[in-house]
Amino acid sequence: MMTAQRREELKHYMLEYKNATVASMAEKFGVSGQTIRRDFKELEQEGFLLRSYGGAVVKDRKAVNVPNTVKSELLVDAKRIICKQAVRFISPNDCIFLDHSTTVLALCDEIANIPLTVVTNSHRVIGRLSGCSNIQLISTGGIFNNSLEGFFGLETVKYLQQHCVDKAFLSCRAIDLTRGLNDSDEKTADVRRNVIENSDSVYLLADHTKFGKSGFIATCEVEKLDYVITDEPVDDAWHKLFEKKKVGLLEGK
Hints:
About 40% of the residues lie in helices and about 25% in strands. By secondary structure, the chain is an alpha/beta fold. It folds into 2 domains: about 5-60, Winged helix-like DNA-binding domain superfamily/Winged helix DNA-binding domain (Arc Repressor Mutant, subunit A, Orthogonal Bundle); about 70-250, Rossmann fold. The protein has a 7-stranded parallel sheet with strand order 6-5-4-9-12-14-15, with helices on both faces. Strands 1-3-2 form a 3-stranded antiparallel sheet. Strands 10-11-13 form a 3-stranded antiparallel sheet, with helices on one face. Helix 9 packs parallel to helix 10 (about 185-195). The longest helix has 15 residues, at about 5-15. The two termini are about 40 Å apart. The mean pLDDT is about 90.
């Protein structure tokens, strides 16, 4: 196994279990303890984890961007449930925005046969839909971020400010009862804020793990949304909030 692949799988493991020992990871990947210590050191320098005696723990994820290649392998069934609900709101010939999140990426499988115009800042959305002759693809342009696999920056924001879409489908790092939508960095929050302001309808696609959490950046208030779509039933507090703010809610299962 190549070093890069091992470190991606190590991140995946750490996201799920929050901590790991050098010995257990050396056994899991069939490498020496010294190799795992080097991996831990590299991931600590990235800001992903903190080394401890004999192992490591995941750093506070509020301000950490996990690579999309890792996130796309997490909660696959939850994303599928969410996107099968979300596609019900898409009509032929709609102009829609899809953000760079791995949750929204899963929506590509559901819309592949619908005639649409798709605006996106996601490199992977472009790759996934580029073979669909029924879909007109428009990239926002901007500065490419390798970890997030998307385009960001002034050019991206400028494009979004000058164009309006019928429906926007986006996700977030976390959603809090008082702070609303949260993200881990300003560039992501900037894109989402401008999409929200220039869309006729806004749909938040968020799995159950995002509720009741907080992120580094407050992106927008809940009332900016038209619908929230998730994979599992949420607590009564969320029902009351969405009813009060006149936000529709679709729950899976």
